[in-house]
């Protein structure tokens, strides 16, 4: 009986409306609509940035004006009017930033509760320091003091630009240059916030660092910029998760994430992305055009990307690794689920430059409803990357006969001693497996969730514990309504 | 005025003269071709389908349109495959010279120009109707220019016991020429034909640009084995687009061995139009010494219950660059499609390059599709094994290369044909030694 009630509740929870579809009513302080040099100066002034940062933003903006929006990706969306969006919005209480959670706007706290991340509980129980980005300004950073004592810097990037300008200036744009691509350049010009992490030499960061992104203000594009530096011999695991409230206007999210791993350092970057995907017909929803790139600068360094992508109307994202240091390695694990009218063009790039560099790509795509999904990945081996090794596996699962699953790997090898392997399959849920579950009294939707979770297991198990549980639930929820 | 146009758009025909004195449908075809080419121009790496092969360098060569009038030169054996038992027809710069004697009445081999002039109604249902060139700038350019080529029409139920061998020779002319041959193969229901094609080059006839389009239509239960040897000249640019439309229960089986040419692109598209249709695209290539060989395959599963299989193997030696782009499309509702694709490349030298893009585009759920791709060097253990048995390294490596290609070359049906292709591989290997190992 309890189980039945649970199912009923769960379906009611998800089938009607997007679970996290609510708009928090907080007055916000925003710049006028549109994009021009004045807005960029305004953002920079608001953040009290050093002069060089403003110059960098303006350089990016001027370059952006010369660029055209890319069209090679396999997604379709109406043209974006970049002048019809707000580029800066901050919660009102900017002046007197809260020093502890008790001072945080209760409205905000309730929002987080609805999202299922009670900050207080997390702080006490999970031992996770949370740098919560609500719209564009970080309002609560926990455990910061504790981390600072160990020499770990974990703060909003705007704060870092003031407190550690030499570090930020040295690494900002060193992995994703301001001129990199249309959306990254736009981000460079107008980014409003994001996280900055520096882990000093030889330190294993004792806790998972986590940021909860959340788009809240109507028509506010979010342009986060995250920069993580792991110095020699250090280790850090970073978690990123997103949900967004329901609304009808499409929203652009063009973030940039840069990772730098020095000798023997390791960075693990995990994402669970659940932006609002639009309604059943595809109306509304977030455009997620993200540039994520990590540089394995040092010997034996390692960068690992794990992503679970279930949201957004349109996703365009290729977390990449530049394997510069000898013996460095890059890994990419991805689960992407698209349902209804969602579109995703996602994958990775592995650029082998150093000797004996290794990379591994495991991509699992699940497409349901009328969704279209593309895996697009590049493996490039430069002539000097002797002994390089790559293994790529991308599997697609189709649920229903109206959806599409595409695989577009690019393999460019210029080194004879490199070994590059690629495998891909496309299939649907085996009827035998489904029948087996049904026969044992498991309802069809649960059976599909079970089988899909099995299909994704290789990826999900690379997530940190607390994310893995959430991700498994998300897999089930994302596919509701796709069978039967 | 036309000079300016040529500056902007190299290789384009004069628009004013286009389609003059020709039936309306043909003139329309030419104009449509020119407008596609004009809209897209010479493909550059910014065009996804040409990502790894840029033709922008062609603007540097002052090509003039080949106007015929070049005769087959004396001496020298042009028939690289040396097939005795075949109906042979020779093309010079894309233009047929005579037709084979003693062909059965049910098989017609003719010149495109003759049909265009005397009986365009025979061509109308096929010409430009098989290949969809709207996304192919070079194919469209061919449509604008085409005047000559080979037409092969085979009646229902005809089973040929000997292959038809097309020897396509490039001969020297004054200056660099560009040519746009258009070939046709139409097989009636249950016809069964083996078509062998060798593209070779006369000495001194290097700087040519051949931009060919082949249209193939297979009726129900027809079967075409299409075997090709591409051994173009050292400076030749050889672009070929072959589109096969495969009817119900019919089979298109292609094998392409590419060994020569400065810049070669073999684009093969198979459209499976009827239930039970099958496409089997196989090939091998050997690339070295500044060559660029591009293999682009598209298999389109347009209806349910069709099968396809792509298997390509290649060897790339010093300064060679190979490109493999293979695509399997499964259309909406094309359920129970079975598509496989495998590309394996050997990279033998540090300055060689292989770019692979195996692509799946799938819109139906009850399908079995997969692809695999590997790139690597020869297995060191295998080389060591042979050397330990007293075989010199160069020979051991050549042996292993031959064994590597044997999956595809060895699968060519019919003994003499297989031997002919193997002979071509061995000649290439011998040349490769001279080019790289003894240097």
Walk me through this protein's architecture.
The complex is a heterodimer of chains A (484) and B (439). Chain A is of the alpha/beta class and 484 residues long. In chain A, 26% of the residues lie in helices and 33% in strands. Chain A has twelve helices and 24 strands. Chain A has helices spanning 2-15, 37-46, 51-65, 106-115, 119-126, 144-150, 157-163, 165-171, 182-190, 431-439, 444-460, 465-478; strands at 28-30, 89-91, 129-134, 137-141, 153-156, 195-199, 209-214, 225-230, 235-243, 251-253, 256-261, 266-274, 286-296, 302-309, 314-317, 320-323, 329-338, 343-346, 349-352, 358-368, 372-381, 389-399, 404-413, 419-428. In chain A, the strands form three sheets. Chain A has a ten-stranded mixed sheet with strand order 4-3-7-9-12-14-17-20-22-24, with helices on one face. A six-stranded parallel β-barrel of chain A has the order 13-15-18-21-19-16. A two-stranded antiparallel ribbon of chain A has the order 1-2. In chain A, α11 packs antiparallel against α12. The radius of gyration of chain A is 22 Å and the shape is globular. By secondary structure, chain B is α/β, with parallel strands linked by helices. Chain B has one domain. Chain B has helices at 2-8, 24-40, 112-118, 120-123, 137-145, 380-388, 393-409, 415-437; strands at residues 64-65, 87-92, 95-97, 107-111, 150-154, 164-170, 177-179, 182-187, 192-201, 208-218, 223-231, 237-246, 251-260, 263-272, 278-287, 292-301, 307-316, 321-330, 338-347, 353-362, 368-376. In chain B, the strands form two sheets. In chain B, strands 1, 4, 5, 7, 8, 10, 12, 14, 16, 18 and 20 form an eleven-stranded mixed sheet that branches. In chain B, strands 3-2-6-9-11-13-15-17-19-21 form a ten-stranded mixed sheet, with helices on one face. In chain B, β2 and β3 (95-97) form a beta hairpin. Chain B is globular and about 70 Å long. In chain B, 52% of the residues are buried. Chains A and B meet through β22, β23 and β24 of A and β20 and β21 of B. β24 of chain A pairs antiparallel with β21 of chain B. Chain A: Residues 213-455 form the SUF system FeS cluster assembly SufBD core domain. Chain A: Pfam families: SUFBD_core, SufBD_N. Chain A: Belongs to the iron-sulfur cluster assembly SufBD family. Chain A: Residues 136-204 form the SUF system FeS cluster assembly SufBD N-terminal domain. Chain A: InterPro entries: Fe-S_cluster_assembly_SufBD (IPR055346), SUF_FeS_clus_asmbl_SufB (IPR010231), SUF_FeS_clus_asmbl_SufBD_core (IPR000825), SUF_FeS_clus_asmbl_SufBD_sf (IPR037284), SufBD_N (IPR045595).
């Amino acid at each position: 009986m309890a189980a039945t009630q649970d199912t009923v509740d769960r379906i009611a929870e998800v089938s009607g409306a997007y679970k996290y579809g609510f708009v928090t009513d907080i007055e916000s302080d925003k710049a006028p609509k549109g994009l021009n040099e004045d807005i960029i100066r305004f953002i920079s002034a608001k953040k009290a940035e050093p002069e060089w940062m403003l110059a960098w933003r303006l350089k990016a903006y001027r370059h952006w004006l010369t660029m055209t929006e890319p069209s090679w990706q396999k997604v379709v969306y109406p043209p974006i009017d970049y002048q019809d969006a707000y580029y800066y919005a901050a919660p009102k209480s900017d002046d007197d930033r809260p020093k502890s959670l008790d001072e945080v706007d209760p409205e905000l706290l309730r929002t987080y509760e609805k999202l299922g991340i009670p900050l207080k509980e997390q702080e006490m129980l999970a031992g996770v320091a949370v740098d919560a980005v609500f719209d564009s300004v970080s309002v609560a950073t926990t455990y910061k003091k504790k981390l600072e004592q160990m020499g770990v810097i974990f703060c909003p990037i705007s704060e870092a630009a003031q407190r550690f300008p030499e570090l930020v200036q040295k690494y900002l744009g060193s992995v994703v240059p301001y001129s990199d691509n249309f959306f990254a350049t736009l981000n460079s010009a107008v980014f409003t916030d994001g996280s900055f992490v520096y882990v000093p030499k030889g330190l294993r960061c004792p806790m998972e660092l986590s940021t909860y992104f959340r788009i809240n203000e109507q028509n506010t594009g979010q342009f986060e910029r995250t920069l993580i530096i792991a110095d020699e011999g250090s280790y850090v695991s970073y978690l990123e998760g997103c949900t967004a409230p329901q609304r009808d206007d499409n929203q652009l999210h063009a973030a940039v994430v840069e990772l730098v791993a020095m000798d023997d350092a390791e960075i693990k970057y995990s994402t669970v992305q659940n932006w609002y995907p639009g309604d059943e017909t595809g109306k509304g929803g977030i455009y997620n055009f993200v540039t994520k790139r990590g540089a394995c600068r040092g010997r034996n360094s390692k960068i690992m990307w794990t992503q679970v992508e279930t949201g957004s109307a349109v996703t365009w994202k290729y977390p990449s690794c530049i394997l510069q240091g000898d013996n460095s390695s890059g890994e990419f694990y991805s689960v992407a689920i698209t349902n209804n009218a969602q579109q995703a063009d996602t994958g990775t790039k592995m650029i082998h430059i150093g000797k004996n560099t290794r990379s591994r790509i495991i991509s699992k795509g699940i497409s349901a409803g009328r969704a279209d999904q593309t895996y697009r990945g590049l493996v490039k081996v430069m002539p000097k990357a002797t002994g390089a090794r790559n293994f790529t596996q991308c599997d697609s699962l189709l649920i229903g006969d109206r959806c599409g699953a595409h695989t577009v790997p690019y393999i460019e090898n210029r080194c004879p001693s490199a070994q590059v392997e690629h495998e891909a399959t496309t299939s649907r849920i085996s009827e035998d497996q489904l029948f087996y579950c049904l026969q044992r009294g498991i309802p069809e939707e649960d059976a599909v969730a079970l089988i899909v979770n099995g299909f994704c297991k290789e990826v999900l198990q690379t997530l940190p514990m607390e994310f893995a549980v959430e991700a498994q639930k998300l897999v089930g929820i994302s596919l509701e309504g796709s069978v039967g | 005025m036309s000079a300016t146009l040529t500056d902007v758009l190299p290789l384009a025909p004069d628009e004013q003269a286009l389609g003059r004195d020709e039936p309306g449908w043909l003139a329309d075809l030419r104009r449509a071709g020119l407008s596609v080419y004009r809209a897209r121009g010479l493909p550059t790496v910014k065009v996804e389908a040409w990502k790894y092969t840029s033709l922008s360098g062609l603007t540097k060569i002052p090509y003039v349109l080949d106007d015929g009038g070049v005769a087959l030169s004396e001496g020298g054996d042009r028939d690289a495959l040396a097939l005795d038992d075949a109906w042979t027809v020779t093309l010079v710069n894309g233009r047929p010279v005579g037709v084979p004697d003693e062909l059965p009445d049910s098989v017609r081999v003719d010149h495109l120009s003759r049909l265009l002039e005397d009986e365009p109604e025979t061509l109308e249902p096929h010409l430009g109707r098989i290949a969809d060139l709207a996304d192919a700038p070079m194919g469209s350019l061919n449509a604008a220019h085409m005047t000559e080529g080979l037409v092969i029409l085979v009646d229902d139920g005809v089973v040929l016991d000997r292959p038809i061998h097309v020897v396509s020779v490039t001969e020297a002319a004054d200056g660099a020429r560009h040519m746009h041959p258009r070939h046709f193969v139409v097989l009636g229901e249950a016809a069964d034909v083996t078509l062998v094609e060798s593209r070779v080059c006369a000495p001194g006839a290097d700087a040519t640009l051949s931009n060919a389009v082949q249209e193939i239509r297979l009726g129900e239960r027809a079967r075409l084995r299409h075997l090709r040897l591409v051994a173009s000249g050292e400076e030749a640019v050889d672009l070929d687009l072959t589109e096969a439309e495969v009817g119900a229960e019919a089979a298109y089986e292609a094998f392409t061995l590419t060994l020569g040419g400065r810049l070669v692109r073999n684009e093969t598209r198979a459209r499976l139009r009827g239930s039970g249709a099958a496409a089997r695209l196989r090939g091998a290539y050997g690339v070295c010494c500044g060559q660029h060989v591009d293999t682009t395959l598209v298999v389109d599963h347009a209806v349910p219950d069709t099968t396809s299989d792509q298997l390509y193997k290649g060897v790339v030696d010093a300064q060679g660059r190979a490109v493999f782009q293979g695509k399997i499309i499964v259309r909406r509702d094309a359920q129970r499609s079975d598509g496989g694709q495998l590309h394996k490349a050997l990279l033998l030298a540090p300055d060689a390059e292989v770019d692979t893009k195996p692509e799946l585009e799938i819109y139906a759920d009850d399908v079995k599709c997969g692809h695999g791709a590997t790139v690597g060097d020869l297995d060191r253990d295998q080389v060591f094994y042979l050397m330990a048995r007293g075989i010199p390294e160069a020979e051991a490596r050549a042996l292993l290369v031959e064994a590597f290609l044997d999956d595809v070359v060895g699968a060519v049906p019919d003994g003499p044909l297989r031997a002919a292709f193997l002979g071509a591989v061995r000649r290439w290997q011998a040349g490769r030694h001279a080019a790289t190992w003894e240097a």
